[in-house]
Amino acid sequence: MSADYRISLSIEGLASEEGHVLAPDFLRAVQLLLATLKRIERQVTRGAEKDSIYFRVVDLSHSSPATVVLQAQTVTPSQDQRHALLERFFSVLGRVESGSLQGRFDYPMLASIRDMTRPVGRTLAALKVSGMGKVIPFDERFRANIETVLAPEQTYPGTIRGVLEAINVHDGANVFRIFPDVGPSKVACHFPASLERDAVQAIRRFVEVTGILKYKTAADYPHEVEVRGLEVLPLEEDLPSLSDLRGTAPECTGALLSEEFIRSLRDVAQ
After folding, report:
1. Mean pLDDT of all residues in 64-71
2. Would 6-150 and 153-238 be classified into the same CATH topology?
3. Higher model confidence: residue 212 or residue 152?
4. Residue 22: which pLDDT band, with cuts at 50, 70 and 90?
5. Which of the following CATH numbers is that of domain 153-238: 1.10.287.110, 2.40.50.140, 1.10.1060.10, 3.30.565.10?
């Protein structure tokens, strides 16, 4: 690979638009591409919270097809992960294109790639990504391959915790998203009308959702929940401190002094 670490995104508009790309389609394609690259960055940096790679626009062309060229930049030269990021990105695209993608995968990453393909044939005539000597067209076959990977689903009863945000109760949609502190970046939660008041009151609160968790077969984390129960967890400042607990159970040590009681526990442990 050349040392400039470039990715080209080419988008062609419909003939009915004289080949011009609609602004929302252009913006959405760039945003989804960056979201995909960000997910892969988290993989190659093993979940590091601080960004180690950013992208700048180094070329922009309107001539059909419209093309934007992004160049990866490293924040810390001594920990340069640009090659690993681009290598994994094009490896994933290549395996989707060939229909050979198997094993565990990051569902949000593949969902972003899938969403890039959806306007093709509808509001876009063509879309392709190139770099590392490869050109990957996001055509009908590519879309069919990634839909096949994302289609299988398994369900299990369980619970998941996270901050409740982005609730939608319009016209009976009854869905909110939670953002867990570990695991998936976000999970869509579909809830019954009986829980609407609880869900609305829980906005921006840390909650525990109980229900049927839905997993893509090869994904590590659930992407959706059919909610059966919702519990708002207390804020940290509402929880009792150690000093608050002092004296709440004065007879728990029996006839022993507290020091003797602790010493007896240590003797048992040994």
Report:
1. 92
2. no
3. 212
4. very high
5. 2.40.50.140
Please give the Cα distance from 247 to 264 (Å, whole number): 20
Q: How far apart are CA 172 and CA 178, in angstroms?
A: 19
Is there a contact between 227 and 213 (Cβ–Cβ < 8 Å)?
no
pLDDT band at 2 (very low <50, low <70, confident <90, very high): very low
pLDDT at 1: 39
**CA 58 remoteness from chain centre:** 27
What number is the average pLDDT over the span 134-140? 96
Label each residue of 134-157 as H, E or C: EEEECCHHHHHHHHHHHCCEEEEE
* DSSP 8-state assignment for residue 115: H
Q: How far apart are CA 52 and CA 120, in angstroms?
A: 32
Answer whether the bond into residue 65 is a cis peptide, omega within 30°: yes
CATH no. for 6-150? 3.30.70
Give the start-to-end residue ranges of the domains of the chain: 6-150, 153-238
Nearest one of 175, 154, 174, 163 to 221, comparing CA atoms? 154
**Interatomic CA distance for residues 83 and 79, integer angstroms:** 11
> How crowded is residue 118: how many other Cβ atoms within 10 Å of its Cβ?
16
pLDDT at 264 over 80: no
**Which two three-digit tokens encode residue 96?**
């989707």
Which amino acid makes up residue 66? A
**Average pLDDT over every residue of 21-26:** 95
Q: Do 174 and 193 form a contact (C-beta atoms < 8 A)?
A: yes
